[in-house]
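Hey, quick one: can you model this chain's 3D structure?
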Amino acid sequence: MAAARAFEKAGQAIPLGITESDLTELARIAKGIYLPVDDALKIHPQDDSFLKKPR
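Sure thing. Here's the predicted structure for all 55 residues.
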């Protein structure tokens, strides 16, 4: 988890101030996110109707 709390640049860790509570909340939010995927095309369309729009 330490890597999630620091950004490494030029070999120096820069503290971001992210807490365990922040990480827990982000994990909860991530579980509720829907990301459509087209397995045949191996892409993430912009939305559910993206691939049905006329070209």
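One thing worth noting: DSSP finds two helices and two strands in the chain.
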